[in-house]
Write a structure and sequence with these properties.
CATH topology of the largest domain in chain A: Rossmann fold
Largest interface: A-B, 65 and 65 residues
Helix content of chain A: 40-55%
Radius of gyration of chain A: 26 Å
CATH architecture of the largest domain in chain A: 3-Layer(aba) Sandwich
Number of domains of chain A: 3
Order of helices and strands of chain A: HHHHEHEHEHEEHEHEHEHEEHEE
Strand content of chain A: 15-25%
Structural class of chain A: alpha/beta
Distance between the termini of chain A: 74 Å
Largest sheet of chain A: 6 strands, parallel
Number of helices of chain A: 12
Shape of chain A: elongated
Oligomer: homodimer
Strand order of the largest sheet of chain A: 2-1-3-4-5-11
CATH superfamily of the largest domain in chain A: Response regulator
Number of strands of chain A: 12
Chain lengths: 343, 343
DNA sequence: GTGAAAGCGCTAACAA
DNA sequence: TTGTTAGCGCTTTCAC
């Protein structure tokens, strides 16, 4: 880095910000010592540490993590991909993830794939270009092209909100099949005999729906009517779904909804029509969103611990990034049916 | 970059990934030409372009944007700070922002500040370290330390969801004072005489609340009871707030809520108690969340175009990042009262 | 515990 | 239009 005569030197502007070199110079140490003072203070003498922190305070230095990431091949960036952020389902997971990562000095990048997987590939490319230390997917990785890219990039991946026998890498989720079956058993156990379901048209909801139907049939029901609505689900979808159900299967005495919002829609429509819940129709939701307990009647629903999912995902990624061995790569957080008044 | 004798050469592992150098070598051009082929294809001959894209395809190259960002001082990263992602209010803004940025090759980093501003400083430091091309704040910048840091970092800032006479940099929002007043006028115009309000305990909601009270008083009301609940607001807060209101101000005939969720809570409690909405009590929400129109009764509420806010914020940041002049730095997206059945 | 040297992978600046 | 050179700001490697 020997500089030539200024007159013939090539100049580059730089960002103008305070650099670690500036700090080191002010502290009277070598840049690397300043670096160590910030990253591994235990490797530095108390004296040097003090000089450096003083210099940092005096200059208002903020370390450039782009440069650090480039040099160390650790960006401390983690990407999360959700179908859409406006469905409230993944919110708690994203929130827990953001917090757990922030505590450990990592930052979350958010990507939305849409429910149709079409943007997934472009998104993966955008993400991989940022060299994140990990990627958290909601759902499992679908497209072969996406799988290939992730594999090639060798970035730790956590799939969430699902369970598959063939995880891509790490996995935090629960069994949608078990959940669907459990709800059917629950309703049958409460004496309901004409089960129906309303589900968003996405893969996981469909899997719960099929298990629900299979369990009901196994218990002797001939027909389990299903209404599918586009994902993400809305309250209005629930309202019109109940209307449809009432028309086509008037004997229905229990409805399993693929989201709490859908369940609220069912209950709203029931209320508008003077149909008693749970008297005439039992309603079960999915998700146990924060408001479920406070509806009238309080909503019986399937509780998924989205916060635990987010925290475990963060743990997985950080463990990998810091070189710890991750033995158990699959965590089943399970689910529970929260019995309230609507069923 | 002359290499010494291999035996005494220092080696560094590198990430092992395909680099632009590899691509350039395979394409038979200089690295910078490959770089230009990817970034500014119009500056490159068709022939070179083709050679490069072939090489990219053959190698599965994904550009390293950390390195690019470091070299060009443009990270193509944008940070968004929300109080918490699990309040549904900012969701549409964050969604629109994410999409609008992704379309233009920028990625969103998400940060949660909490409602108490205590984490804001630490968050700003974490964000600035990533050298984003812009920062989108929901609400306005509060702490002096935060302001100083942002100022020092010279990163474009967009404040959203609020209007202030002294914007930090750029601003997309609306007047909370006008909104509060408008709702009071609306209710008074509908013949309501005993206005009350329920509001989350955050600054913006409080500003709306005060304007609402002032307008009601200006119209002759002596007392405008207010119930404040902790932010973020929940359905249950709404239920207990109505209970409180009924106890302390039994004559209340209209309630302005600081969120649609609160309004749903009010309506739920009213329903549970057999109180007619809007017959006995009119309810007005805030936000016009997606489900507001489908409630029973359909919720009258203040509509804020969160999507427009997000898109405009993205536009501001990208314009700045790409060196375009931004003349109008403040955009008022306004609000509207959506008249439905609840008031 | 501290430091010098050498890059990480890319692009700005200059030159041809 | 293409290429050469010199960094961007940091951390790794190796040496003391």
């Amino acid at each position: 880095m020997k500089r030539r005569n200024p007159s013939q030197r090539r100049t580059r502007k730089g960002s103008g910000a305070v650099t670690l070199h500036d700090v080191a110079k002010l502290a009277g140490v070598a840049p690397i010592t300043a670096s160590r003072a910030l990253n591994t203070p235990e490797q530095v003498s108390a004296e040097a540490l003090k000089k450096v922190s003083d210099a940092v305070a005096r200059t208002g230095y903020v370390r450039n993590r782009l440069a650090g990431g480039l040099a160390s091949a650790r960006s401390r960036l983690v990407a999360a991909v959700v179908p859409t952020i406006s469905g409230p389902v993944f919110l708690r997971t994203v929130q827990a993830l953001t917090e757990a990562l922030a505590e450990r000095g990592y930052q979350l990048m958010l990507g939305q794939s849409g429910y149709d997987n079409s943007r997934e590939d472009a998104l993966i490319e955008a993400i991989v270009g940022r060299r994140p230390d990990g990627i958290v997917l909601t759902g499992i990785m679908h497209t072969p092209e996406g799988r290939r890219r992730l594999l090639a990039a060798a970035i730790p991946v956590v799939e969430t909100w699902d369970l598959t026998p063939t995880p891509f890498d790490m996995l935090v989720g629960f069994s949608h099949v078990d959940a669907g079956r459990a709800v059917a058993d629950f309703l049958l156990g409460r004496g309901r005999r004409q089960l129906a379901l309303v589900a968003g048209d996405d893969e996981r909801a469909r899997r719960r729906a099929h298990a629900f139907q299979a369990a009901a049939r196994a218990a002797g029901m001939r027909d389990v009517p299903a209404v599918y609505v586009p994902a993400p689900t809305t309250l209005n979808h629930g309202r019109s779904a109940l209307a449809e159900l009432l028309r086509t299967s008037p004997g229905t005495d229990a409805v399993f909804c693929s989201s709490d919002l859908l369940a609220l829609g069912i209950m709203t429509e029931a209320q508008a029509r003077g149909i008693a819940v749970p008297g005439q129709i039992a309603v079960v939701g999915f998700g146990d969103l924060e408001y479920a307990a406070d509806l009238h009647p309080a909503l019986t629903t399937v509780r998924i611990d989205g916060t635990a999912i987010g925290r475990q995902a963060a743990q997985f990624i950080v463990d990998r990034a810091e070189g710890r061995r991750v033995d158990k790569r699959v965590v089943d957080v399970g689910f529970s049916i929260v019995e309230r008044d609507s069923a």
